[in-house]
Amino acid sequence: MIPELGQFALVLALLLAIAQGVLPIVGAWRNNAALIAVARPAAAGQGVFVFAAMAVLVYAFLSFDFSVAYVADNSNLALPWYYRVTAVWGAHEGSMLLWVFILNVWSVALAAFSRHLPDAFVARVLGVLGLIGVGFLAFILFTSNPFLRELPMPADGGDLNPVLQDPGMTFHPPVLYMGYVGFSVAFAFSIAALLGGGMEQAWVRWARPWTNVAWAFLTMGIVAGSWWAYAELGWGGWWFWDPVENASFMPWLVGVALIHAQAVTEKRGSLPAWTILLSLFAFSLSLLGTFLVRSGVLTSVHAFASDPRRGLYILGFLIVVIGGSLLLYAIRAPKVATGKPFAPLSRETGIMVANLLFTTAAAMVLLGTLFPLIGDALNLGRISVGPPYFGFLFVMLMAPAVLLLPFGPYLRWGRADGRQLTSMALRAAIAAVICAIAATIFAEGRLRAIAGVAGAVWVGAGTLAYVVKRWNEMPRGRRYPAEMAGMLLAHTGVAIFLMGVMLSESLSVERDVRLAPGQTESVGSYSFRFDGVEETSGPNWRADEGIVAVMRDGKTLTTLHPQKRTYSRGQVQTESAIDAGLFRDIYVALGEPMDATDVRGAWALRLYHKPFVRWIWLGGLFMMLGGFVAAAERRFRAKKVPAAETATTTPEASPA
Amino acid sequence: MRRLAWFALLLFPLLAIAQAIQPLPFRNHAEEVRFQHLSAELRCPMCQNETLADSNAPIAHDLRRQVFEMIQAGKTDDQIKAYLVDRYSQFVLYNPPVEPGTWLLWFGPLVLLVAGGIVVAIQVRRRARQAPAVVLPANDTEDDW
Amino acid sequence: MSRFLPLIGFVLLVGLFGFGIWWNTQHDQHEIASPLIDKPAPAFSLPVLNDAGRTVDKASLLGKPYFLNVFASWCIECVHEHPLLMSQMKDLGVPLVGFNYKDDPAAATAWLAEHGNPFEVIVADREGRTGIDFGVYAAPETFLIDGKGVIRYKRIGPITPDVLDNEIRPAIAALAKEGQ
User: Fold this and answer.
1) 3-class secondary-structure state, position B105
2) Are residues A345 and A245 located together in one domain of the fold?
């Protein structure tokens, strides 16, 4: 009975989404206050029913309702409750429901926190979100219904893939979707602006906090995914340029460009068309990602099971949403160059260059991800594109961005002060060179380590110089407005990230060894003594657990317990043991016994020493924090539009 | 869908047997590092997008052993890659070769960057012509920073 | 006009994706086209299954086309394909040579006893090294090698009636035209 209620709730949600999608937009077009007023209640109503549907599915998992096919496929009696909740989004149908759920979280939030915006504008924004909801709800109800029954009801179910039975899986998809799906808000704002025609410039100011928060969530989601892959899956790897990873990274890159472009348009009035286009791109890439991982068009370890019918449906949805929005852009985007003029050396130019680099990077990732498909289409044979391509080109594109980054805050709007720039550059460069020399000694001349340290210190010192400048020049309380504090945090995050990546990539040591109980192997300055294997078990698995003592200078630092687990359905999973530290990780994975019949004998082990690897995610967390802090800027919530913001057309207006 | 399934079925009984951890008797650390880099650049022919280094598949195990033996026999990286490409096609290389078929891949981003750079340059020049010299305040004001 | 560029780009992308979906219905993503088609089969010399004294090498098989079928007792799909090998494939008039891949001889013998033995001779590649030379990465795989020792066709995955009719029979007919 209850699963049917869930399905019914989705149907009601779909009806409300249709109402939300159509009526307010018509109302805004026709200036009909009654229709405009439908927007918020419809969004609230849709939210209620989608939340209810989600609650029903969670309940079905928690109560072992195997009569629901999706529950039976993805959980069993031995699966602990926290992984049963995780299993809700562990496969295609549930993850689509999660998508719609998160979309409604954003819509409800927008409906609630938009009292300071004009009603007609909000009507359009919520309308667009409603239309997107219609697409996804219809997709769920017609092709991917998680509430379908399986009768006769099986006594026990399948399993959630053991690889997914990890806190990472509990956390990563919802957070990632908050980001991914959150770009729909910026998208909706842009569509509303295009539809509105009046082109109130203030719309960018209203859009900024929503965009920053979505981007921050996306950053957190990507960081969580990367950390999870490292801890659970990847043999010490944290990024593989796998199509599914790229699907989340492309919107992130465009999101970076978007955040900065919004700043330009909000403060100076320039580049409104580009800002709109970027918001369309960001969400389009989110949708594209959703398509890519479900349609079977690409091979990936991550991909959901493919189904051409679903692929075609999503493709149709993409055509309507992305095609429609780009058509609207082509017709309605502002044609006249607006905004305050700026000199070649100015923050506007700096942001334009940065935008170019990030957008090109996103295009490069798209090209590489799709190239195997292009290769098939053009009959070039099976071309395989992987980390050597992506990593190389990404570094090439980001290197100039890293060089430019510390200049950012020093570049004034309109016209930058050359002397300030050179003064900062000199100090940061000196700091970078000194640290690079230190790195040359400690890293034994490894180029990537030196480059990483130099780049990170360049960015860090330059950012710090600005922090100091503001401290000296401004009175207390006005030194670091939220937007600026966010910017400084995020830029610092870049420095930390860069340090982490370059040092861990160049200084990591990995050894595959065979050790009998009692034997010791050394990696760098650490020694690993293998003390044999014990049997342990968990809620739905049994394992051979290795005991590895990690020592340095004769003292035992810690004992690690890598496991080789066998799950209730027979799947085998390696659980690596990690001793995490701020400046290094020690990582041990258990392989196979050298003699399959004798687990008391020697085993194959993989040992890692990874310096500074945590800085990769720490940098990401700083960036995320920066996004949240910047979104808290009071100016974004101001009710009145400051006079200085009204669009000024330049004297000799020319088509952009 | 069934075709995807048969590969998956194929893999299951073997996950327990072959694993990516494969201790090999390297002569020195440099050789080990070279092996690791090479196998990270090669693709497991069987798996869904895994490197030779990471894959648990039996063929990955065999190919790693093959790469190891060829390194010990003094072959160069290019020779090893060619050996594998001859048998498994370009697909085993994660680093696509630069040839007319892949020019779009390798040079596309550069072309885009240059084209975008030209657009940016034009925009900036246009703005600069329009701008009279802007008067800068001595310090950033809070809103104008 | 430049405002239409993103839309045009998107239309191209849609075309690509539509192609991708269609292509997927026609092909198995996991198949890699063998670079050895129309190239001479690698020289090999392998012991016969359960008869260590005898070896079979490439030269001894020249003169007539034959199928080289890669199988193993651990291979699930081989069980599905085997009935076809026992019946229609045997009737094609082209000898079947078994290639026991990375298998335990006792297990392989038992498997053949259970499922039938359509092979004229079976070679055993316990380590998989010859398999690498042939570009084998999974089982079952089947090669059609002509009388001159050139690989003319490779099937990755089990042989199904469709594959038999649409791919294998035409390949044999083509060989017959050449007088093989």
Assistant:
1) helix
2) yes
A447 lies in the same domain as A489: yes
Question: Residue A574 and residue A560: Cα distance in Å, rounded?
Answer: 14
Pairing type for strands C66-71 and C96-101 reads parallel
- Give CA A422 to chain center in angstroms: 35
Tell how strand C45-48 and strand C51-57 pair up: antiparallel
* E strand or H helix that includes residue A173: helix A167-196
**What is the CB neighbour count within 10 angstroms for residue A280?**
27
A501 and A525, same domain (yes or no): no
Contact A236, A610 (CB under 8 A): yes
- Angstroms from A96 CA to nearest CA on chain C: 20
Tell me the nearest-neighbour CA distance from B128 into chain C, angstroms: 22
**What residue spans define the domains of chain C?**
1-27, 31-177
Same domain, A86 and A230: no
Nearest CA in chain C to B63: C132
Nearest to C24 among A308, A322, A370 (CB): A308
Partner-chain residue, chosen from C7, C18, C29, that has the shortest CB–CB distance to A326: C7
What does DSSP say about strands A520-523 and A509-515: parallel, antiparallel, or unpaired?
unpaired
Range of the domain at A386: 179-414
pLDDT tens figures, A452-508: 999 999 999 999 999 999 999 888 888 899 999 999 999 999 999 999 999 999 999
In terms of Cβ atoms closer than 10 Å to its own Cβ (0-12, 13-18, 19+), residue B125 is exposed
State the smallest CA–CA distance between residue B127 and chain A in angstroms: 5
CATH number assigned to the domain covering C31-177: 3.40.30.10
**Tokens found for residue A137:** 């709800």
Interface test with B, best of C130, C137, C154, C163 (most B CBs within 10 A): C137
Nearest to C24 among A284, A297, A374 (CB): A297
The distance of A290 to chain B (nearest Cα, Å) reads 18
Residues A157, A57 share a domain: yes
| Cα A580 from Cα A586, distance rounded (Å) | 7
In this structure, are A410 and A421 located in the same domain? no
Do residues A89 and A71 share a domain?
Answer: yes
Which of A133, A165, A197 is the last residue before a domain boundary?
A: A165
Whole-model pTM? 0.92
pLDDT tens digits for range A530-584: 999 999 999 889 999 999 999 998 899 999 999 999 988 888 888 899 999 999 9
Which H helix or E strand runs over A331? helix A324-332
* Torsion sign, CA atoms A152, A156, A158, A159: positive
Across the interface, whether the CB atoms of A373 and C20 are under 8 A apart is answered yes
Q: How many angstroms separate the CA atoms of A209 and A218, rounded? A: 14
> What is the number of structural domains in chain A?
4
Going by the DSSP 8-state scheme, the letter that residue A319 receives in this structure is I
- The answer to whether the CB of A614 falls within 8 A of the CB of A580 is yes
- CATH class in words for B2-92: mainly alpha
Do the domain assignments include residue A173? no
One-character DSSP codes across C15-48? HHHHHHHHHHHHS-TT----TTTTSBPPP-EEEE
CB contact under 8 A, B10 and C138: yes
pLDDT at res. B136: 55
Residues A17 and A157 reside in one and the same domain: yes
Q: In angstroms, how far is CA A40 from the centroid of its own chain?
A: 28
Task: State how far the alpha carbon of A94 is from the alpha carbons of A97, A180, A312, A395, C98, in Å.
Answer: 5, 16, 19, 36, 46
Q: What is the average pLDDT across B72-101? A: 92
Q: What's the confidence (pLDDT) of residue B4?
A: 42
Please count the residue pairs, one from chain A and one from chain C, whose beta carbons lie less than 8 angstroms apart.
71
Amino acid at A122: V
Contact C17 A295 (CB under 8 A): yes
- Within a domain: A203: yes
